[in-house]
Design goal:
The protein has one domain: Vaccinia Virus protein VP39 (Rossmann fold). Helix content is 28%, strand content 29%. The strands form two sheets. The protein has a seven-stranded mixed beta sheet with strand order 3-2-1-4-5-9-8. Strands 6-7 form a two-stranded antiparallel ribbon. Strand 1, helix 3 and strand 2 form a beta-alpha-beta unit. The chain binds S-adenosylmethionine. S-adenosylmethionine binds next to strand 2. GO terms for molecular function: methyltransferase activity. Keywords: Methyltransferase, Transferase.
């Protein structure tokens, strides 16, 4: 990893080392908002799901119950370590990678997924180069007929999270960056109330890749 990558990883590792889950500003005990969008994606035991920047999210525990294959990503080795110890599930694969960098660099590009799920990760990528790499990674990975769920701070949302600036999203910007091969299925403005009782407006949008 480059110096920049190492400092980003260190930032997140420090957070996951210092705090319990319920002390994290994005912690969700109840993942039903995300799960309600995923109901439209026909997840089965033969599906492969990509969890971008999964952190230590309880969503992963819910998705294990579907028997799908999970590829669990994060820039933080600490988060992946904590999650793998908690899950203790041999079916999960872990991918330690900064999604602002191309999968070409140091990772076998050969995998494909049925559903790409991102809650509160994409919005931490700030430069055009990082954002472009993220969407290239997504497009090289999601199968035709597969789905993408993006849940990011909306334009009405906070400007910072976890001590970092964020790039806020509209449904339109998501669509433009995904391109015409992705069709919007459903979207919703959703205000998440975090463990500190602060309101965090998100935009949730589910897209389907055309056949
Ligand atoms: C706000 S937390 C959200 C965690 C989880 N998705 C959830 O909803 O609980 C952001 C997560 O993204 C990870 N992350 C931040 N930048 C990343 C990057 N460039 N590539 C991969 N993961 C990243 C962090 O380590 C952290 O786990």
């Amino acid at each position: 990893m480059s110096d920049t990558n190492e400092s980003k990883q260190a930032h997140w590792d420090t957070i996951f080392s210092a705090k319990q889950d319920a002390e994290l500003g994005w912690f969700e005990d109840d993942c039903s908002q995300t799960l309600s969008f995923l109901k439209n994606t026909a997840i089965s035991a033969s599906s492969t799901l990509f969890l971008a920047g999964a952190g230590t999210s309880k969503l992963v525990d819910e998705l294990i119950n579907t028997d799908a294959n999970l590829i669990i990503n994060d820039i933080s080795a600490k988060a992946l370590e904590q999650l793998s110890q908690r899950l203790n599930n041999t079916k999960c694969q872990y991918l330690h990678h900064d999604l602002g960098h191309s999968f070409d660099k140091g990772f076998d590009k050969g995998f494909t997924v049925d559903v790409w799920i991102d809650r509160a990760v994409l919005h931490f990528l700030l430069t055009e180069k990082q954002i472009t790499h993220y969407f290239e990674n997504l497009k090289s990975t999601v199968k035709c007929g597969g789905y993408v769920l993006l849940a990011e701070f909306s334009n009405a949302g906070a400007t910072h999270c976890a001590g970092l600036a964020v790039h806020r999203y509209s449904e339109n910007e998501m669509q433009v960056r995904l391109g015409d091969n992705f069709e919007l299925i459903n979207s919703k403005q959703y205000t998440f109330v975090n463990p500190f009782k602060q309101e965090r407006p998100y935009i949730y949008a589910l897209f389907k890749r055309r056949q």
